[in-house]
Amino acid sequence: MSVALDGPAGVGNSIFAKKKEKRMNLIYIDTGAMYRAMALFLIRSGVGAYNSMGISLESQRAEISLTYENGEMVVWLNGEDVTGLIRTEEVGNMASKSSVNADVRKKLVSLQQNMAAEADVIMDGRDIGTCVLPNADIKVYLTADSFVRATRRFEELTAKGIACDIGKIEEDIIERDYRDMHRELNPLKQAEDAVVVDSSYMSIEEVVETISEMIAKKKNGEA
Fold first, then answer.
1. pTM for this structure?
2. At a CB cut-off of 8 Å and minimum separation 6, what does 63 contact?
3. Any idea what the Cα angle at residue 92 is, between residues 150 and 102, rounded to 5°?
4. CA nearest 99: which of 9, 199, 14, 25?
5. Which of 21, 24, 95, 203 is deepest in the core (most CB within 10 A)?
6. Are 83 and 75 within 8 A, CB to CB?
7. Strands 72-77 vs 64-69: parallel, antiparallel or unpaired
8. Are the beta carbons of 164 and 171 closer than 8 angstroms?
9. Confidence class of residue 13 from pLDDT cuts 50, 70 and 90?
10. What is the per-residue pLDDT for 125?
11. Packing angle between helix 52-59 and helix 31-45, nearest 10 degrees?
């Protein structure tokens, strides 16, 4: 079984998918983590975010993979565990910009499709239902208001003792949404056969229950 979970930045796809993975015995593929690992590699290589040719060339030197250890996902970049290094705003912004590169997408989409061909997966990203897994058994478009998403991110960062500006966070989210939705190659959009779930005023558990019902019905042949 394959479940495609798409949506804009900061909507909580990865948090939801992790909970769903454990409850429904699906392997969680965090495509965003893969693009972030690539972004970290490019930052380290000194490639500018708008240097398309440089990104194309450098990206081919990055070997990225995901493994699970004690139930937790580990992100590997050229043999280095970078799980704890890819969640910064700098890396996120670079990932949004570098992910529009055709060579970057080709490299990572192929890897993602191979993963889905080998196991039951729940995969989240921007173009899973429209490009990576167009024949997914279930497609969900998870969205939320930009201010709600900024508030969630603000609370997450302040809880870690990181000083931040909620206004700047929302500005970055809106800018990232625009880039993702207007990029030339596989932009973020709702698949025609996807079910929209607005999580603005839903708890993670409520979202889990909503989509759990979809998966259960599909497994039981009811949808």
1. 0.78
2. 76, 77, 78, 79
3. 130
4. 9
5. 95
6. yes
7. antiparallel
8. no
9. low
10. 86
11. 110
The conformational region for residue 106 under phi > 0 = left, psi -120 to 50 = alpha, else beta, is alpha
| pLDDT computed for residue 89 by the predictor | 84
Q: Which residue has 């972004």 as its token pair?
A: 39
Cβ 1 vs Cβ 135: under 8 Å:
no
Name residues whose C-beta falls within 8 Å of residue 211's C-beta, 6 or more positions apart in sequence: 3, 16, 20, 138, 140, 197
Look up residue 129 and give its two tokens: 């239902």
Q: Are 123 and 2 in contact (CB under 8 A)?
A: yes
Return d(Cα 16, Cα 123) in angstroms, integer.
11
With contact defined as beta carbons under 8 Å apart, do 146 and 173 qualify? yes
**Mean pLDDT for the chain overall:** 89
Could you write out the DSSP letters of every residue in the chain? -EEEEE--TTSSHHHHHHHHHHHHT-EEEEHHHHHHHHHHHHHHHT--TT-HHHHHHHHTT--EEEEEETTEEEEEETTEE-GGGS-SHHHHHHHHHHTT-HHHHHHHHHHHHHHHHHS-EEEEESSIIIII-TT-SEEEEEE--HHHHHHHHHHHHHHTT----HHHHHHHHHHHHHHHHH-SSS-----TTPEEEE-TT--HHHHHHHHHHHHHHHHTT--
The arrangement of strands across the sheet holding 80-81 comes to 64-69, 72-77, 80-81
Angle at 44 between CA 40 and CA 47, to 5 degrees: 95
Cα dist from 165 to 127, 132, 181, whole Å? 29, 34, 24
